[in-house]
Amino acid sequence: MTAELVRGQNHPLSQVRLEIRISAGTPVVAGATLSDENGTIPGVEWVAHPGAPTLPGLEVSRQAAAEHRLAVDLDAVAAAVHRVSILLALPTGVGGPAGFGSLAAPFVAVTGLDGAEVASYTITGLDAESAVVALELYRRQGAWKVRAVGQGYADGLAALLTDQGLPQAHQLAAGVNEAVAQGLARSVPAPPPRTTDADGDRSRQAAASTLGQDQSGSPYGGQGTQAATGPYAGAQDPAAHMPGSPDSGAGFPSTSAPTDPSATTQPTVPTAPATGGPVDYSHPRRRNTAPPPPPPPTAPPAQPGQPARPVAGDATGWSMEERLYNQVWGMFEDLARTTAAYRSAVDFADTRMERELDEVLSDPRSRIGGQGDAARESARAKHTQLVDQARQALDRDLDQLTAEADVVEPALPPAYARWDNPAWHAYRVPMEMPMALRLGDLHLPESDRLRIPLLVRLPLERGLWIDSGRTGSSDGSFADSHELRRLAMESAVAHTARLLAVHPAGEFTVHVIDPAGSGAQALVPLVQTGVLAAPPAVGAAGVADVLGRLTQRVDLVQMAVRGGAADSLPPGFDTSQQLLVVNDFPHGFDDRAVNQLRYLADEGPAVGVHLMMVADREDADGYGPLLDPLWRGLMRLTPVPDDHLADPWVGHAWTYEPGLVPPGSQVLQQVLTQVAAARRPWRG
User: Which secondary structure element, helix H or strand E, spans residue 21, and what is its range?
Assistant: First the structure.
């Protein structure tokens, strides 16, 4: 199945002899550069272009054309080559368009020699850029991958080559333009425009259904597919809802070795889109092709007239992961809808009975005697009948959803599965990041036995606040403050371990601030296995050090992205995503540290720095309204079941249950041990 990439996303290559097919709609120049482990082109002999179209393992077109086919043999490239970048540029001096923004979005596909597509990418978001790095093929731990780049340059091919470190960039760009000008008479004209078919309807996608945090946020809708509007665009749409493409991500390449951002997947350092506006979920390429593959056929009903037996992955999607993701969303939507119908029916029955009883009582003649009693009994009987009918319909739907959940839960991959799912016993450190992560379960009072996984898109667009204070649930009201703090920290460790487990080795780094050391016991699994970047920071000095380093990191990446110089980051710069876990806030925090924390919460997610707070809101009342934006910006989770997640779609208050490790289970230790073992070679 073809992987349809978006900017920043990568995909493994199972073949080394490939063809790069380019469709631009207008004559463009196609070329390729070879670069070393630092992403630098040592000399002009490392560039394939129309004037010198052949290099070991690489051949490009000799002329500008609307369609290109480039040949690549990765086994034949020199051992010093770590990255092959595919370039597109508009011919200069021929009266053509000044930038790609006035043209149809170029389409690039990587195929095998048999023509079967391995990966494809539609380069969107270009404007005045006249040269663009479309794709790059890069080595990663002895294997090759392809990444969608889409990095455009308004100053043309010379700026592109300069950015890749070629000293003779301007001379080579002039030579390429001259070689192209000599062959323009043979340029291939643009083909007829492709017909546009409507995108296939994905099953069970809601138009705007989101859950809310404390009646406002969105655990299901807080993460979205990413758009490509600038050189390193890719931040998520805060208003996006759960169903969507798994092919989402963005990031920038490492200055030392190619990063492995992951294929569903957001890259290692996602950054904010230039426009900051809403994100379009649909793939431009998919609007021009057939809809996603249909779901597998459902099993026939056990008996005629009975519902069909549920099947795991019974939703549309481009992969089983996306099918399961959309199926979970469909279950959530179905439960919300059927519960809303039941509540509406009960409200109607209550209102009707009250109206009929009012009519009886309003007539003095019916207040006494058998006539009044009979009227009241009739009203109550009608009420009972309506409620019973509604409950029967609800129970029928709940039985079907429960049967579906019984099939879906065992089929979920580790990122979506509970800690007691056998999928964790077969856990291996992944090569790619999944499209979502399970943070717990949701249920409603009418369906207490049915649990819907709470899946949140990756990378996290909002930080997490694990509430260690009193909650509105009975579990919280009976627990003392010390017990709640302990449970909150254990919940934070479980979430942190899951985040570490679903990322490829070396692509997720965790820092912990525990000023008073109160979370030391809960942090033992993270500390003993060695998965933390450093021991938990303690005291005011430790708080200042960690916050200072992460704040500096955010500033540095933002400047690099805004200046279009992400490849000029310091050598050895860690491009992995960063998670800061803060326990016992505000202990050990002064005003400067509080402001830095707010800055990280606001600006960090756009450049791959995420925040997880373990705190009681009342403890920080001394800061007054200063921290209100911080609390509103984080997604609140509780260490005990609590019905604080609102659903503005139908008005439900969903009960959230944290995803904790079963008592006595060693699964957390086993998973973290594998994560630590995989990180050591990467660090080495």
Answer: strand 17-35
Query: Are the beta carbons of 612 and 492 closer than 8 angstroms?
Result: yes
pLDDT tens, residue by residue, 246-273: 333 322 222 223 333 333 333 333 333 3
Q: What is the DSSP letter of 286?
A: G
Of 226, 43, 56, 41, nearest to 136 by C-alpha is: 41
Alpha carbon distance 132, 111 (integer Å): 20
CA–CA distance, 488 with 518 (Å, rounded to integer): 12
| Helical H segments across 315-369, by residue range | 320-362
CA-CA distances (angstroms) from residue 614 to 219, 227, 514, 611?
18, 31, 10, 10
Q: What is the pTM of this model?
A: 0.59
Domains and CATH numbers, the chain: 3-186 (2.60.60.30), 457-567+583-683 (no CATH)
Contact (Cβ atoms closer than 8 angstroms) between residue 183 and residue 50: yes
For residues 488 and 639, is the Cβ–Cβ distance under 8 A?
yes
- Cα–Cα distance, 201 to 168 (Å, whole number): 50
pLDDT in tens, 643-659: 888 776 677 889 999 99
CA distance 333 to 455: 13
Which residues are CB-contacts of 287 (< 8 A; sequence separation ≥ 6)? Answer: 196, 197, 198, 199
- The strand pair at 131-140 and 107-112 is best described as unpaired
Q: Which two tokens stand for residue 520?
A: 């030391």
Residue 98 C-alpha from the chain's centroid: 35
